[in-house]
User: Which sequence fits this backbone?
């Protein structure tokens, strides 16, 4: 039984893996609370509505005894639906972060109606399943001391509102916001990104202007904030929830409006319209990719350079669970919005495959690296080889090693020759560097780690589609 | 002190305290105004239409 590396901060329980199943150990207080939510039918209803991950109490005596022996000192155990792959906010598009934030607010409002609250509001408590956000950290639910204040509001702002404001008004991106800091950025840091005139403008006054000014006063010792305290034993939480409800509704509207107003600025967003394929080439490529995917019979597919996800959809239609990545934020944004409208088993992610997300947090293992999380049966690398050769300056052998590290079995590679119009566009000023890049060279280099299963040229195009199996 | 294992952010808490007292104040004031017309005793808490709706 392996404990999930990121599950240790909250002392009321933790998540561990047992075989292929995911369990959570609960202390007495957390178990009591979740039991009552379970009996009242809330857990099942929230799971049905896609608000929280599917969760069941472990009742089977043999399994319970086994879990108790391996994890002594806990009152109860629940099993969660398994979620794969896991994604992190530094890999989300703007709308993904906004939807995750709005889900957190929705859950907090539901809990408030029951006299409960979330004790934290980190974006790592949300995962995406079939392109929809779902809340996974059930031990975040607690009986709060007060209903008028939400002590996790500051964290909510750091994780959801501030990054969206910085993307919209200061040109930030989510990767640079989240990667160096697991808890987002402080009010004092974010406040400094704006002039005092901006901070006191109506759009920022309640979320940055006033908190920034108040926090500075607290820092200077001129005032102090109330501290979270324990609820009176047996008593109801203090305060009326009306003010908090109003804040939650206001934040929900604000985050929705922010996400809608951030126009996706994309390099390849128009690619499907301007790309080099005519209709016949595209039909031919799609048919071949489908055949190769059916040959590979992969349960999980990683699509590298997925653009707006046309081929990810083909893979999902072939029955695979798809992880669709692109370095272009705008493309992933468009793909996510399309999945929202036409659901499919696709998890979109912003990842630069030549510089993928590193392991971050405690011991560099709390949030594992992209390569540790993405373990697909098949890698789909369509129209990316020229980007890796030219854009990332990777030699052919390095590309082979990267793709061999990523896939567990198959690789579908589209070879793009140097006389292809998209390749020529990339090497306008450095033509001679890539003279050796031919299909034979590619097959020769890839042959060291892969066995070639199929090779077909795409009709009306200089490109070739290759199916490899790792040796 | 009760366990709060995240940094609540003093600014975010204080702004909530201010908002809560404003809204509480308005609610009490409003219930007094209403009491003038209905002749009923004002409740000490915020009005019932702000209370959670069962779903």
Assistant:
């Amino acid at each position: 039984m392996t404990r999930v590396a990121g599950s240790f901060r909250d002392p009321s329980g933790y998540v561990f893996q047992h075989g292929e199943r995911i369990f959570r150990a609960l202390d007495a207080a957390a178990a009591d609370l979740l039991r009552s939510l379970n009996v009242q039918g809330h857990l099942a209803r929230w799971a049905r509505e896609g608000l929280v991950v599917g969760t069941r109490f472990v009742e089977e005596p043999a399994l319970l005894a086994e879990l108790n022996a391996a994890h002594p000192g806990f009152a109860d155990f629940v099993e969660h639906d398994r979620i794969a792959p896991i994604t992190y906010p530094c890999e989300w598009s703007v709308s993904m972060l906004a939807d995750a934030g709005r889900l957190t607010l929705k859950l907090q409002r539901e809990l408030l109606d029951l006299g409960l609250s979330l004790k934290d509001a980190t974006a790592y408590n949300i995962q995406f399943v079939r392109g929809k956000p779902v809340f996974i950290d059930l031990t975040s639910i607690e009986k709060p001391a007060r209903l008028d204040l939400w002590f996790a509001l500051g964290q909510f702002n750091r994780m959801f509102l501030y990054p969206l404001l910085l993307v919209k008004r200061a040109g930030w991106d989510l990767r640079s916001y989240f990667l160096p800091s697991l808890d987002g950025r402080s009010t004092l840091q974010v406040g400094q990104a704006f002039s005092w005139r901006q901070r006191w403008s109506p759009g920022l006054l309640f979320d940055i202007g006033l908190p920034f000014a108040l926090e500075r006063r607290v820092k200077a010792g001129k005032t102090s904030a109330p501290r979270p305290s324990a609820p009176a034993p047996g008593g109801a939480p203090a305060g009326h929830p009306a003010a908090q409800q109003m804040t939650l509704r206001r934040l929900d509207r604000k985050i929705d409006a922010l996400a809608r107003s951030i126009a996706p600025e994309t390099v390849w967003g128009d690619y499907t319209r301007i790309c080099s394929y005519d209709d016949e080439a595209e039909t031919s490529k799609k048919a071949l990719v489908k055949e190769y995917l059916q040959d590979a019979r992969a349960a999980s597919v990683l699509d590298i350079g997925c653009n707006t996800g046309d081929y990810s959809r083909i893979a999902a239609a072939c029955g695979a669970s798809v992880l669709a990545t692109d370095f272009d934020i705008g493309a992933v944004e468009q793909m996510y919005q399309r999945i929202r409208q036409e659901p499919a088993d696709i998890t979109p992610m912003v990842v630069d495959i030549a510089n993928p997300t590193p392991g971050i947090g405690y011991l560099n293992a709390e949030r594992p690296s992209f390569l540790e999380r993405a373990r697909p049966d098949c890698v789909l690398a369509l129209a990316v080889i020229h980007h890796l050769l030219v854009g990332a300056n990777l030699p052919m052998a390095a590309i082979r090693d990267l793709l061999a590290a990523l896939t567990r079995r198959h690789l579908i590679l589209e070879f793009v020759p140097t006389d292809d119009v998209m390749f020529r566009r990339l090497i306008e000023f450095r033509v001679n560097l890539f003279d050796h890049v031919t299909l034979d060279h590619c097959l020769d280099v890839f042959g060291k780690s892969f066995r070639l299963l199929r090779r077909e040229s795409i009709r009306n195009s200089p490109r070739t589609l290759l199916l490899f199996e790792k040796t | 002190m009760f366990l709060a294992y995240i940094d609540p952010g003093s600014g975010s808490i204080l702004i909530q305290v201010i908002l809560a007292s404003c809204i509480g104040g308005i609610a009490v004031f409003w219930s007094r105004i209403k009491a003038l017309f209905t002749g009923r005793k004002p409740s000490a808490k915020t009005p019932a239409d702000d209370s959670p709706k069962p779903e």
